[in-house]
Amino acid sequence: MTLAKKRAMTAYAFLLIPLVFFIAVRFGPMLYMMGRSLTDWSLLRKTNLFLGIANFAAVFSDPAFTAAMVNTLRYALVGAPVVIALSLAIALLLNGITRGKGLYRLIYVLPYITPIVAVSWVWRWIFQTPPLGLANGILGALGLPAQEFLNSPNSALYSILGVNIWVELGYCVTIFLAGIQTVPTDCLEAARIDGASERKVLSRIILPLLVPITFFLAIMQGIQFLRIFTPVYNMSSQAMGGPLNSTKSAALYIYQTAFTKFEMGKAAAASIILFALIMAVTLIQVRFFDKKTNY
Amino acid sequence: MTRDRTLARTGSYVVLTLLAVAMVFPFFWMVLTSLKDATEIFQLRLFPTDPSLDNYAHILLGKGARFPIWFVNSMIVAIATTSSVLFFDSLIGYTLAKFTFPGKKLIFLLIISTLMIPTEMLVIPWYALSRAMKWGNTYWGIMFPGMISAFGVFLMRQFMSTLPDDLIDAARIDGRSEFSIFLFVALPLVTPALATLAIFNFVGNWNAFLWPLIVASKPKMFTIPVGLANFSGEAGSDWHLIMTGATVAMVPLVIVFLLFQKQIIRGIAMTGLKG
C-alpha cells in the first residue's frame, strides 16, 4: 500500500463512527419521517397504510395549524427585526463608551445562557395578574392601567415574544460588537482627519461594513424565532399555546400532534412544512447574502 | 462640541444602565421571591420581611424531593455528551483539516448540511427509534442525538487547519501512530477552541428541553429543565417554590458563566464571524 493510500485509510477509519452517527441520527431519521408522512403512521397501532398527501391536506385544513403558522410568522417577522435593530443600536452605544464595556456586555448575555424554562417561569410570575405580578405592580405604582399580559389573546403572543427578545438580545449585541471591532481603525481615523462627522463615519463606514453580520444574524434569528417552542410551552396555561391558540407556535403544534394525540403521520407532515419554511428563509437570505456582501 | 459629546456619553450610560437593570432585575426578583413564604408572595414587597431558606430545604431535602435527582441527571447528561462531542468533533475536525483523501469535501458538506435540519423535525423519528430500541427513560436515550455536534466539527476544523503540517510530519517521522499524533500533538495545541466548545456544549445540554421532555416520561429520569417545567405546572400558585426551583436550575450556569465569561463571549463572537 502506498503512503497516500495508507493515510486515506486512516482518515476513513477516523471518520467511520461519525459518519454512521450522522447517517443514523440525522439523515436516516429525516428520510424515514418523510416517507412515513405519506402513511397513517401512529404509535398506537401497527398500520402502515399509504395515504399519499392526505396528512398534508389534513394539516392544512386544521384551523389549529393555520393559527399556529400565522403565530409562528408573527414571532419571526416581528421578533427577528426588533432584536436585530435593538441589538445594533445597543452595540453602537456600547462601542462609544470607554469604561464598563465588558461589564455591560456580560450582563446582557446573562439571559441568553440561562435555561429558557427557568426564565419563562420567572417572567410568567412577573406577568401575573394583580396583586401577584410585579409588572402590574410597577404599572400601578406609575398610575398606569393594569395589563392582561399572558391572559389575553391580544397580548399573550407579544408578551412571550418580548421575553424571547430579552433572551436573544445579548447574543446579538455580542456579535455586533465583535463585528464593529473588526472595522479597521485606520479607516475610521482617516475619515475623521478628513473632517467627516461622527454621523458620516457611522453611516458611510461602520454600517456598510456590518451588512454581512446583519444578514447572518437575520438568518439565524429568523430561524430561531420560527422554531420557538420552550417559552410558549412554559408560559401558556397547561402548555397548550393559549389563550385560544393565540400563542401556539408551529413547533408546539407538532409536539402536541405527535406526543399528546399520537398522530405521528400528521405531525410528520406538519414538521416537513415547518422545515420547508425554514429552508426557504435560509435560501432566500443566503442568495441575498452572496450578492450584497462582497467587500 | 465637547459639551455635546459629554452629554451624548452620559446619555449612553443612562440607556445602557437602564437596560442592564432590565436584564438583571428578573433574576433578582426570582431570588427574592425564593426567600419569601406562601403568604408574603401576595404582598408586592421587594424584599422579604423574614428571609429564609425554607423553600430550598423543601424542594431539595423535603420528602419526595426530586430536584436533587434531576440535578444529577442533568449533570450526567451534560458531562457525558460534552465529553463525547469534544472527542469526536476534534477528531473529525483534525481529519478533515489535515488528511487528503477522496470524498473529503463531500463528507464535510454532508456533516455541515445537518445544521439545517431542525430538532423539531427530528424528534418524531428519534422517538420512534427510541421506542423500537427501548431507549425511552434511559440516559442514552436522552443523550444519543447530541453525541456529535456538526457546529463543533465546523469550529474544530477551522482551528485544526491552523496547525503547521511540519509539526505533524515530524511526529510521523518519530514513528508515532496517527491516533497518538492526534491525541498528543494536535489536541493540546487547540485547547482554547476545546474550552469554548466544551462550555457551549455544556450550557446547551444543560438547557435542552424539547428532546428530554419527549424521551423522559418517568420523573426519575427528568433533566432539570423538564423537571422544573413539570414541577411548576403542578405547583399552582406556589410561586415561592417555583422561583426556588428556577434558582436551583440556574446556579450551575451562573457559576460556569462567571468562571468562563471570556470564553463564552469569544465563543458567541466566533459563531457570528464565521469561525
What does this protein look like?
The complex is a heterodimer of chains A (295) and B (275). Chain A is mainly alpha-helical. Chain A has helices at residues 3-36, 54-60, 63-96, 101-113, 116-126, 134-141, 156-181, 185-193, 198-209, 211-226, 230-235, 250-259, 264-292. Chain A has a single domain (54-117, 149-292), classed as MetI-like (MetI-like fold, Orthogonal Bundle). In chain A, helix 2 (54-60) crosses helix 13 (264-292), helix 7 (156-181) runs antiparallel to helix 10 (211-226) and helix 12 runs antiparallel to helix 13 (264-292). The longest helix of chain A is centred in the first third of the chain and has 34 residues, at 3-36. The model of chain A has no long low-confidence stretch (mean pLDDT 90). Chain B has one domain (62-272): MetI-like (MetI-like fold, Orthogonal Bundle), CATH 1.10.3720. Chain B has helices at residues 2-34, 54-61, 67-98, 104-113, 119-133, 139-143, 150-160, 165-173, 178-186, 191-207, 210-215, 224-235, 239-259, 261-272. The chains are: A mainly alpha (295), B mainly alpha (275). Chains A and B meet through helix 1, helix 3, helix 4, helix 5 and helix 7 of A and helix 1, helix 3, helix 4, helix 5 and helix 9 of B.
Descriptive labels:
heterodimer, A: 295 residues, mainly alpha, MetI-like fold, flat, B: 275 residues, 14 helices, 0% strand, globular
Give a quick precis of the structure.
With 295 residues, chain A is mostly helical. Helix content of chain A is 73%, strand content 0%.
